[in-house]
Structure formats: structure tokens, C-alpha cells
Write a structure and sequence with these properties.
The complex is a heterodimer of chains A (422) and B (289).
Chain A lengths: L1 H37 L2 E7 L6 H20 L8 E7 L5 H14 L4 E3 L4 H14 L2 E4 L16 E3 L4 H16 L2 E7 L2 H17 L2 E8 L7 H9 L4 E4 L3 H14 L6 E4 L4 H5 L9 E4 L12 H11 L7 H20 L4 H8 L6 H4 L6 E3 L4 E3 L2 E6 L11 E7 L1 H4 L3 H4 L8
Parallel strand pairs in A: 1-2, 1-3, 3-4, 4-5, 6-7, 6-8, 8-9
Antiparallel strand pairs in A: 10-13, 11-12, 13-14
Helix pairs in contact in A: 2-11, 3-4, 5-6, 11-12
Chain B lengths: L1 H32 L6 H42 L9 H23 L25 H23 L1 H11 L1 H6 L4 H27 L5 H16 L4 H21 L6 H13 L13
Helix pairs in contact in B: 1-4, 1-7, 1-8, 1-9, 2-3, 2-7, 2-8, 4-5, 4-7, 5-7, 8-9, 8-10, 9-10
The chains are: A alpha/beta (422), B mainly alpha (289).
């Protein structure tokens, strides 16, 4: 009897619960659907926050975050908010960069991967993103292969290729400074391709290389290399090292007074490095990939500068901040264009995307080239200033702004064979 | 070519003097306390950044003197609070502690002063080369070598002729006996640690003028200093000095002949010393084995 009673009671409760559950499901199901729609689009940033590239890495992050906040303020991408997840890739350890990329893709399920400042790390990350079929933009790693022989359907690049950098300044250096060049080159992927590009340009112009000093990444003392370089008696000392290495190298060049005997110049120069140099080390002809001081009336520029100042302790934006900003906005524009966040659809939309004026923030046309997924961005060519001109933060005098497609090799010459999956 | 090699030997001596300054500080701490101080590069960074912060109010010369003392004070506190607790344990404990400290200092520096490098201006009198021929011998580099020579000279005098110095040297040889004779070994170790960190702080100020400041700057200078100790001989400060100079010259000369080996050559030197004369050039047999 009691058993029977218990049995019945249980049954009733079970039915009651089941009924409640069904009722709840009907009420809850719209919430489930809605929650899915409101789940943010996740963007994984795997970039150096420590080591020799910490400063550019941090600035790319600031640029990304500004774009994320602007897009979210306007309602997100396709009505969904976006969220930026940051990981420290280190400055030179490909193993860590790959591990963080896998973590972002596999555990955090990011829809879009961004990185890396270091070319070698960017290449390693591209292997992972390609294997996982995740859209990947390299904001600031320059070695040619990324949009050249190693190009991939899911990988795009915002910054210049090393060949574009060399082409931007070679003619000018040759004409103004002379034909015997000596190089100081960082001993990894970026440095090797940049040197090859400069050497090829120099040979075409009829000049000679008096030597190439390959220096380990992160070296602090350049004196032994500078002694050798001066002994070779070149017309131009071409400095290809980057980041803190650039600061150390130019600082020692100035201390030794080498810039008074040999012309000092280079390809890529960055505001992060220039700001870290003492005034006497700010010498030579260089190119910036983006520069903040431009003609008045450039659409969106003043607002961009003001927003970045707010987020970086009053500092002006650098090319790195711009890279981060462009990366996220380009992704958002491509998603809206594709009306999807599915990687292949977004890649197709990104492949010929032209940046609108308030994103490109410069005079020339800026667009992704479909054949190699390389952004055609301008080169800002000019000279370093020892003291700020008109503005203490204006440390570079821009002589010309050259359109990216005029210095980029043709798609066929990059060696890229793009295979877009159906 | 001969001139090039001569240049690089001289240049190597200048760099070596700097390594020696770092290495002697490390060596002092290792000898008396048995602590392999991985955070030594971190203290170097602290010294450099403190000098940067103090320069506007004290000037270059004031900062040069005050910053190393402040760094030593921080070192003293760190020894009292953290490192002291691990004496008598396996050296691995203090190695792990200082390894962690090195990371904390690096990230702390980044938090306080920013990831971006900072420029350091040096007085105009020191900033130009002494002659056109020997362009790599600048006033500042000569000043660095002179500072290292004076400080190391003073340190050797301190160790040779003062009561504290004699106790430190005696403690290096046999700490138990020194303690049994009534010397306050705890205080002695704290003081000795602070002196070692003072040298790191001084190296940081000097390096800042030469290279500028950057949170990771200690890393690249730490490894050659360890190698200087091993090559010169653990337990011998003179050996450490010699080791620092030797690896400076070796990497300088290699940079002329075979540039890509200029970093590897110091490790090769270390390997050769360990194989042929494991106690190091001037090390005493049987120490730290």
C-alpha cells in the first residue's frame, strides 16, 4: 500500500516535473535562440606583449581595441557584439605563439585570428590557422613569404612586404647617397628577405654590396659590427634591424660619429623606436608604413589621433596602432559585405576590399589585392628629425607618400599561387 | 685586417669590463650565500630605470651615484624578506625564486615605465669619440671602463683590508667556522648581497647611457656574466674579472673572422674550460663541487 502510494506520488511528481520542464522549454527556447544571437564574435590576438617587440605589440593591441569599441558602439558585426581576447606570443618563441594560437582556436573558439609582429611567428601561426580553417590577418609581420610563396586562402596581411619596403627607398638612397651599400641585418626570416630585396634592387641599379652583418635578434652591442662596416668604407650604411635593436644600433652609430662619415639610412622605421632614441641618433632617410602627421583635412585622422591619445597615455598613434585598427575594421567590413562570419565567405569578401577614407587615413587608394591577400598601403618616405618640427612628437619629415601598388611586385612575381576553396 | 683585429680586441676589452662588473656582483653573492642570482639582470634594469627617474632632479652625475645605492637597498630588502629563508636548502630553491623574481621585475618595470624603450641622454663631454681613427673609443665608453676599474679596485681593497672584507672572504671558504667564531653571518650575508646588487645597479646606470633603457635589457647581459664566472673560476673574484675580459675579447675578435659565431664562441670557451680545467682559470679546486 505504502509502496503503491509512494509509487504513485513519484509518478505524479515526475509528470509534474516533466510538464514544468516542457513549459519552461517553451518559454526558454526563445531565450536560447536569442542568447546565441548575442553571443559575441570572438577575435583572438596572439601578439608579443613581452620581449623586444613588446612596444609594437602593445600598440597593435591598442589599435585593435579601439576598433572593437567603435564597432560595438555602432551595434557590432551583423548585430553581434565583438570581443577581443589577447594572448602574449612572446617576441621570438614560435612554440609559444603556436600554442597560444591553438588555445585561442580550440579552447576559446575564436572566429578570427590576428598576429604576429614577428614574421617567423606569423608564419608559424599561419600554419595553425590554415589547418583549422580560421580566417587570419597578419597585422605587422613583413617577411615576403606570408603573402608570397607561402600564401594561403585564409591569411591576409596589413603591413608591407619586405620587397615593398626595399622598393620604396632603394632608388632614393642610390640617387642621393651613392652606390656602395653595407648592411646591418637581423638574422631571421624578416631580415633575410629584406636584405635579399635590397640587394636585388641595388644590383638592378648598378651598385655593390660591401658587406652584410647578420646580427642575432635582441643583441645589445653593435660595436664589433660597426667597426667592420666602417672599415669596408661604404657610401651608405643600411640599417635593417628593428625594435630595440634599431634603437641600440643607431644610438651606437651616433656615439661613434659614424653618421658624420657614412650616410646612414634604412628601409622600415617606426615611431616606437624613434621615440626611444636620443635626438643625436635620429638620422637618415627611411620609410614609415603610416605616419600620423598628414595634410590637414585627411578624413577621420584627427578623431583617430584623439582617440589613440586617450588610450595610450597621451601618445600619438604609430603605424602599429594603425595596423591593429585597420585589421579589425577590415574584418568587420568584410563580414558585413559577406553577410556572414563563415571564414571562406569573409575571405572572399576581404580579397578585394577597399578601405573607406575614415579607416585608411591617408591619401592614396588602400585595398587588399585578391591574388596574394596583401594590403596595398602607402609608403611614407622622408627623413628623421632630431627635434620635433612644430610639434615635439613630430619626429619625421614626410617627403612623399607613395601608393602601395606602385612599389609592390606583381602577384606573379610574389610567387603566390592562391587556392581559394570552393 | 690586423688593424681590424686590434680594434676588436680593444673593443672587446671595453665590453668585457662591463661583463666583469655584472659578473663580480653575481660572484660575490654566489660565493658567500650559494645563491645563483637569476634576478641579477632584473636589478640591473631597476638601477637603470631609477637613474632615469632621478636624472631630472639630480642630474646625470647625481643619479649615477644615488641609483645604485637605492638598488642595493631594494636588494637588501629582498634578501631579508625572501632569499634569506632559502639558505641552507638545495641551491635549486633560490635559483627558482630568483628566476621568478626576474620575471616579476621585468613585468613590474613594464607596468611602471612602459614597454617602449626610453632614451637616456649622457653629458655632452662624454658623448663624442676621442679620435677619428679610434672612433669606437668614445668618452662615455672610457668613462665606463674607468668607473668599472675604480669600483672593482675599491671592492678588492674592501675585501683585502677591512674587517668586513676579511669576514666575507673567510665566509666564502668556510662559513660554519666563521659563524662559530661569533661573526653575525646573517648580517654579513645581507650586506654582501646588497654589495652585489649595488654592482648590478651601477651596471644598469652605465648600460642605460650606452644602450638606452628597455625592460628586457638585463637578459642579454646576464648569460655572458654567468659564463665569465665559470671561465674565470667559481670562488675567485680575480678569475671572474679575467673571465669577463676574456669573453669580451673572444666575441669581439670572432665578429671579424666569423661573425655568425660571435655569440657561440663564448659558450665554446665555457665548454672548453669545463672539459680541460673544470674549476675555471683561477678557481680553487674542490669548491662548489
Amino acid at each position: 500500500m505504502s509502496k503503491d502510494l509512494i509509487g504513485r506520488a513519484v509518478q505524479r511528481r515526475t509528470i509534474l516535473k516533466a510538464g514544468l520542464a516542457i513549459g519552461a522549454m517553451q518559454v526558454a527556447s526563445p531565450f536560447v535562440v536569442k542568447a546565441l544571437a548575442e553571443e559575441p564574435i570572438k577575435i583572438g590576438l596572439d601578439n608579443p606583449l613581452t620581449g623586444t617587440y613588446a612596444a609594437p605589440g602593445k600598440n597593435e593591441q591598442i589599435g585593435c581595441q579601439l576598433a572593437v569599441d567603435q564597432i560595438n558602439a555602432k551595434g557590432g558585426i551583423l548585430g553581434r557584439k565583438i570581443e577581443l581576447l589577447s594572448e602574449d606570443s612572446t617576441s621570438g618563441d614560435a612554440g609559444t605563439a603556436v600554442q597560444k594560437a591553438r588555445k585561442l582556436i580550440e579552447r576559446d573558439n575564436v572566429d578570427f585570428l590576428v598576429g604576429n609582429v614577428n614574421s617567423a611567428l606569423a608564419q608559424a601561426m599561419a600554419q595553425v590557422s590554415n589547418e583549422k580553417g580560421v580566417l587570419h590577418v597578419v597585422p605587422g609581420g613583413h617577411t615576403d613569404g606570408i603573402t608570397g610563396i607561402d600564401c594561403k586562402w585564409n591569411v591576409f596581411r596589413v603591413c608591407n612586404t619586405t620587397r615593398m619596403e626595399a622598393n620604396a627607398v632603394s632608388d632614393l638612397l642610390f640617387k642621393t647617397y651613392g652606390k656602395k651599400w653595407h648592411f646591418i641585418t637581423p638574422d631571421y626570416a624578416f631580415g633575410h628577405t629584406l636584405f635579399q630585396a635590397c640587394e636585388a634592387d641595388l644590383k638592378k641599379l648598378g651598385g655593390t654590396v660591401t658587406g652584410n652583418e647578420l646580427t642575432p635578434l635582441g643583441i645589445t652591442d653593435f660595436s664589433a659590427y660597426l667597426i667592420k662596416a666602417r672599415a669596408a668604407n661604404p657610401d651608405v650604411l643600411v640599417v635593417l634591424v628593428q625594435g630595440n635593436d634599431m634603437v641600440n644600433c643607431l644610438k651606437q652609430i651616433a656615439q661613434f660619429g659614424i653618421e658624420k662619415q657614412i650616410h646612414v639610412a634604412g628601409t622600415q622605421q617606426e615611431l616606437e623606436a624613434v621615440e626611444a632614441m636620443p635626438p643625436e641618433a635620429r638620422v637618415g632617410v627611411w620609410m614609415f608604413e603610416w605616419y600620423w602627421k598628414q595634410a590637414a583635412g585627411t578624413p577621420g585622422l584627427d578623431q583617430f589621433i584623439a582617440e589613440i591619445r586617450k588610450r595610450s597615455g597621451g601618445k600619438v598613434p604609430t603605424a602599429r596602432t594603425w595596423f591593429g585598427y585597420v585589421t579589425i575594421h577590415a574584418y568587420a567590413l568584410a563580414c558585413e559585405k559577406a553577410k556572414s562570419i563563415e571564414a571562406k565567405a569573409v575571405a572572399r569578401a576581404l580579397a578585394d576590399l577597399e578601405l573607406p577614407p575614415d579607416i585608411k587615413l591617408q591619401p592614396n587608394k588602400v585595398y587588399f589585392r585578391g591574388g596574394d591577400h596583401q594590403l596595398m598601403l602607402s609608403a611614407f618616405i622622408g627623413e628623421l628629425l632630431q627635434k620635433g618640427d612644430g610639434d615635439p612628437e613630430n619626429l619625421f619629415k614626410v617627403n612623399s607618400i607613395v601608393a602601395g601598388d606602385s612599389i609592390a611586385p606583381s602577384v606573379a612575381d610574389t610567387g603566390c599561387k592562391m587556392n581559394m576553396p570552393a | 685586417m690586423l688593424q681590424l683585429i686590434f680594434f676588436n680586441i680593444t673593443n672587446g676589452l671595453i665590453i668585457g669590463a662591463f661583463y666583469a662588473l655584472m659578473a663580480i656582483g653575481l660572484s660575490l653573492i654566489l660565493n658567500l650565500s650559494g645563491v645563483i642570482n637569476f634576478a641579477h639582470g632584473g636589478f640591473l634594469v631597476i638601477g637603470g630605470y631609477l637613474a632615469y627617474t632621478l636624472t631630472p632632479s639630480l642630474g646625470f652625475w647625481g643619479a649615477l651615484i644615488v641609483a645604485p645605492f637605492l638598488t642595493a637597498l631594494i636588494g637588501f630588502v629582498v634578501e631579508r624578506l625572501l632569499i634569506r629563508r632559502l639558505y641552507g636548502r638545495d641551491p635549486l630553491y633560490s635559483l627558482l625564486l630568483t628566476f621568478g623574481l626576474a620575471f616579476i621585475i621585468e613585468d613590474g618595470t613594464r607596468q611602471i615605465w612602459g614597454a617602449q624603450g626610453l632614451p637616456v641622454s649622457i653629458p655632452a663631454v662624454l658623448s663624442s669619440p676621442l679620435s677619428n681613427e679610434f672612433f669606437f673609443i668614445t668618452g662615455y665608453r672610457m668613462f665606463m671602463v674607468a668607473t668599472v676599474a675604480i669600483v672593482v679596485g675599491l671592492l678588492f681593497v674592501l675585501l683585502r683590508y677591512t674587517r668586513i672584507g676579511v669576514r666575507i672572504r673567510a665566509g666564502t671558504l668556510d662559513l660554519d667556522t666563521v659563524a662559530a667564531l661569533g661573526v653575525n653571518v646573517r648580517a654579513l650575508r645581507s650586506l654582501n648581497f646588497a654589495v652585489g646588487i649595488f654592482l648590478a645597479g651601477l651596471a644598469g646606470v652605465l648600460a642605460g647611457g650606452q644602450l638606452g633603457l628597455e625592460p628586457t635589457m638585463g637578459d642579454g647581459l646576464l648569460m655572458p656574466s654567468f659564463i665569465a664566472i665559470i671561465v674565470g673560476g667559481v670562488g675567485s673574484l680575480t678569475g671572474t674579472l679575467l673571465g669577463g675580459l676574456l669573453i669580451g675579447v673572444a666575441s669581439g675578435v670572432t665578429a671579424v673572422i666569423f661573425p655568425s659565431a660571435s655569440e657561440a664562441v663564448v659558450y665554446v670557451m665555457m665548454a672548453v674550460v669545463l672539459l680541460v680545467r673544470p674549476r675555471g682559470l683561477l678557481g680553487e679546486e674542490g669548491m662548489f663541487t
